[in-house]
Structure to design on (445 residues):
């Protein structure tokens, strides 16, 4: 009798606890979901837009059962209708298999099962390899603010049309910090293929220079897309080796949009609420960011690709504890032999094309140093950087003269033109069209 009473008591409180957990998951789902929707709406034009939902019956009534005046455009049908005394157009699609970006929601239990309960061995700081519905995926589990996870998802979805962005698949909003699901990148992090310390530890084959240069150009192109292809330029604000994945063909996939921000319409800069590990000097001083913050970060990536050194774990150079890899190379590259700073694995490739390789390396050093100038106005735009990297790539094939310093190549605009462009906040239509067109195909030049 006593045992039956205890079992009933235990069962009763277990049910109460389960209900509390279910209610908490539902609360978090709605709380995170509302933040996600708010961020998605705000990302349209920096202003909250009153996006409303209507029932199917309301839309049928508004269009007289979709028999009203209509216009067929592309894969859509537009109906004229009346809602709440206001004339509107209602869009319908007749393409049954048209697929938008399929951002799905998953339960905490699904993600635990997918990763075998989040083992201690994982990829990078946040990433876990998992299997969902027969598909290998990457699951991102952040330990910080919910806001940055939602920002990461929104910007990733916004940029996922570009072939060099890690594409989001879904998310779990039932946890305190939303968890994100992305496509799988089979060859892991770029850092593990470049940093001499990681290559040695993991016994990886060092990446050849030709592939490093191609990856640099592809990432430069991706940042050009962020800066020019949208009405409001998007600043990544978190570019470093660990934010770049490689797929099975070593195509780079940019991720880590936690801190990404858009420059408000009519403004020249933006107050960025979060700081990443590496910051441009002007952002460190003022807390305000422009596209030139990404240029600075990309310049540091170039210098790491050249040297094989991790800015946080420098092994080959003797650097003061208060100094940085960028500062060291700005001092060291002036008048020293380029071979002294290059990754030994790159120099080991030197064969019959030794002279052309040296010219390429020198041109990339010059570009990296220009991108990391202290004064942001002296840095090129990412469009300029992409053009120069394409020229450097073609050098060995065409014998084209690279000249010396980037500033002598007429790829930089004048300081006045840069300032004017920053204030106007729009690139030329030709540049935008070219960047958009290129983003729709693999970046082969």
């Amino acid at each position: 009798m006593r045992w039956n009473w205890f079992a009933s008591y235990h069962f009763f409180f277990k049910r109460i606890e389960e209900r509390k957990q279910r209610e908490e998951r539902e609360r978090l789902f709605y709380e995170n979901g509302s933040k996600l929707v708010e961020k998605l709406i705000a990302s349209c034009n920096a202003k909250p837009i009153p996006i409303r939902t209507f029932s199917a019956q309301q839309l049928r009534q508004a269009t007289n059962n979709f028999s009203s005046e209509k216009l067929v455009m592309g894969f859509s049908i537009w109906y004229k209708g009346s809602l709440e005394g206001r004339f509107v157009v209602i869009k319908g699609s007749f393409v049954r298999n048209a697929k938008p970006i399929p951002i799905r929601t998953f339960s905490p239990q699904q993600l635990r099962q997918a990763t075998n309960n989040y083992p201690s061995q994982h990829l990078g700081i946040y990433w876990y390899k998992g299997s969902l519905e027969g598909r290998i995926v990457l699951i991102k589990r952040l330990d910080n603010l919910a806001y940055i996870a939602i920002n990461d998802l929104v910007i990733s979805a916004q940029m996922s049309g570009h072939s060099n962005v890690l594409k989001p698949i879904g998310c779990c909003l039932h946890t305190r910090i939303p968890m994100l699901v992305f496509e799988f990148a089979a060859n892991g992090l770029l850092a593990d293929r470049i940093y001499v310390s990681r290559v040695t530890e993991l016994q990886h084959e060092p990446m050849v220079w030709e592939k490093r240069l191609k990856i640099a150009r592809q990432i430069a192109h991706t940042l050009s897309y962020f800066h020019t292809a949208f009405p409001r330029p998007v600043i990544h604000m978190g570019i470093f080796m660990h934010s770049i994945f490689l797929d099975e063909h070593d195509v780079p996939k940019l991720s880590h949009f936690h801190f990404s921000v858009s420059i408000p319409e009519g403004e020249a800069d933006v107050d960025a609420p979060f700081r990443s590990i590496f910051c441009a000097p002007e952002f460190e001083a003022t807390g305000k960011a422009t596209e030139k913050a990404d240029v600075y970060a990309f310049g540091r990536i170039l210098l790491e690709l050249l040297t094989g050194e991790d800015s946080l774990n420098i092994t080959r150079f003797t650097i003061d504890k208060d100094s940085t890899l960028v500062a060291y190379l700005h001092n060291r590259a002036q008048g020293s032999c380029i071979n002294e700073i290059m990754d030994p694995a790159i120099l080991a490739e030197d064969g019959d094309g030794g002279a052309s390789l040296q010219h390429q390396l020198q041109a990339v050093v010059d570009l990296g140093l220009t991108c990391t100038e202290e004064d942001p106005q002296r840095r090129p735009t990412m469009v300029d950087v992409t053009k120069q990297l394409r020229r450097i790539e073609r050098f060995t094939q065409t014998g084209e003269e690279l000249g010396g310093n980037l500033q002598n190549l007429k790829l930089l605009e004048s300081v006045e033109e840069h300032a004017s462009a920053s204030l106007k906040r729009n690139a030329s239509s030709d540049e935008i069209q070219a960047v958009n067109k290129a983003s729709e195909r693999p970046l082969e030049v």
